[in-house]
Amino acid sequence: MADKKRITIEKNIKQDIASKQFYVTFYYGKDSSGKNKRKTKAYPTLNEARLELRKHEVSIMERSAIDPSRTSVNEVIERHLEMLSLKSEESTLYGYRTIARHIKGHRLGNRQAQEVKPVDVQAYLAHLQKDKALSSNTALKHYNFLNSVFNMMEQQELIGRNPVKRVVTPKKIAHDPEYLTVDEAREIFKRSKGDRIELPFALGLYTGMRRGELCGLTWDCVDFDNDLIRVRLNRLNVGSEIVLKQPKSESSERTLSMVPELKEILLTEFEILKNNKKLLGNQYRSSDFVICYNDGEPVRPNYLSEMFKRWFNRKLNKDLRAITPHGLRHSFVALAIAAGIPLYEISQALGHNDISVTSRIYAHLLDKTHKNVTEGMAGLLREDSR
Questions:
Q1: Other Cβ atoms within 10 Å of 189 Cβ, number
Q2: Given this model, what pLDDT does residue 128 score?
Q3: Residue 36: which H helix or E strand, with range?
Q4: Among 123, 155, 295, 320, which is least packed by CB within 10 angstroms?
Q5: Model pTM?
């Protein structure tokens, strides 16, 4: 009806007879059903209408035009999460959903996705670090998530350019992992003898297993006859839920040698388990997990960390360096390097995909002067010169 009161001035520009305003129709291609996507806007003069139309035509050629569809950042994120759910582990998705909740609670989440500018993303990242007091590394995770969301929109031609790529990236801060010295490890072994923490401490330090792998270890993977421990399961906290899954990668499924000291501790624990089964009878939970309560109930991974924290907070242990279950993994590497074990073998024991991963994380533990290498080579020359 409105078009009957408008006359065509030139292609995509009409003038309203009553108001004398000039109406420009901007086209953005076709939607999924094949219909034209378009938007109409009024301008007071013909020159202004022509100028805005030309700008739009250039932006279409440069693929920088903003799609007229009205979709919020939150809606785009929900679609992105649906796509990720088809290929991501539940533990990974939980992290993404946590980031999504932060965005939802910020004004960025309600912005129209097609209208988001780099300054909006920059303001959100600043909010995380200044108002929420989150670390730079955590802000970087938010940046990477938003970048993947807007990359998806760019690939689907819903936006011309990804605004996230044009903001200042949060700086990643490397933290040297904490680890025990030989003397510290010996002292903890001495004080933890017979304590509930003795078993997870020994398992973590002698094998370098991840916390989830420690909590996922079952007795059928402990081979007393051949002195072997098979790493097959990863037991994780995902929010309030416990998820049992295969280790991170194919290389994470590995078989580790059981040293005599660890074997003795495990055999003692196995005897305690058998006695508890007899005492509790039907009340005993036959979960088969190595690290468990007296009734067989497996220990939650988060509680294992809490158990370590409480033990080191005891008055008698305040003088010790507190270590976490994951810190035992770092200690395993530090002591292995100190013992002269080749980095490749350490990497295999850790279940890393590539030795470069091990080298990157533990580079600070390596001999930066390369004394072992240079002295070893020089020793060969000395042998030859005799």
A1: 15
A2: 96
A3: strand 36-43
A4: 155
A5: 0.71
